[in-house]
From TrEMBL:
UniProt signal peptide: none
Stored PANTHER family: PEPTIDE DEFORMYLASE
InterPro entries from the UniProt entry: Peptide_deformylase, Peptide_deformylase_sf
Protein name as it appears in the record: Peptide deformylase
Highest taxon of the lineage: Bacteria
Lineage: Bacteria, Bacillati, Bacillota, Bacilli, Lactobacillales
Family according to the record: Belongs to the polypeptide deformylase family.
Length: 137
């Protein structure tokens, strides 16, 4: 298990992430390990939060950690305004999210998948994909 320090530098966090490849699977595992290590304070992480400029996110679905490589939201329904915090930033901020999203991504075997998520899990995924796009709350 390899955990990484959480990055707080907004210049790093505002940089758009590069597409993940087979060579980045170690980053994905480190990201998952870091999420598990921070499970009491984080619902999800993006690779740039551990200093890796790759389009990889990790989040919990119930008690289980899940990894997505190269995720993108392809559909979204039912917008709402909420407040979110971030492990890389102090405080909470208002943000627009969607209750239902469909995400296209690759698993760690690089199989393309499309999956629908709702409620809190959808909110976390949107937050982490924003990180991949260099968007901060």
């Amino acid at each position: 298990m390899t955990t990484q320090a959480i990055i707080h530098d907004v210049m790093i966090l505002r940089t758009k992430s590069q597409k993940a490849s087979q060579a980045d699977l170690k980053i994905a595992e480190d990201l998952k390990d870091t999420l598990i290590e921070n499970k009491n304070i984080a619902a999800g992480l993006a690779a740039n939060m551990i200093g890796e400029n790759k389009r990889i996110i990790a989040f919990f679905v119930g008690p289980f950690p899940m990894l997505m490589l190269n995720p993108k939201i392809i559909a979204k329904k039912e917008s709402y305004i909420t407040e979110e915090g971030c492990l890389s930033l102090t405080g909470v901020r208002p943000v627009k999210r969607y209750k239902i999203i469909s995400v296209e991504y690759e698993d760690t075997s690089f199989n393309k998948k499309i999956q629908e998520f709702t409620d809190f899990t959808a909110e976390v995924i949107q937050h982490e994909i924003d990180h991949c796009d260099g968007i901060l709350i």
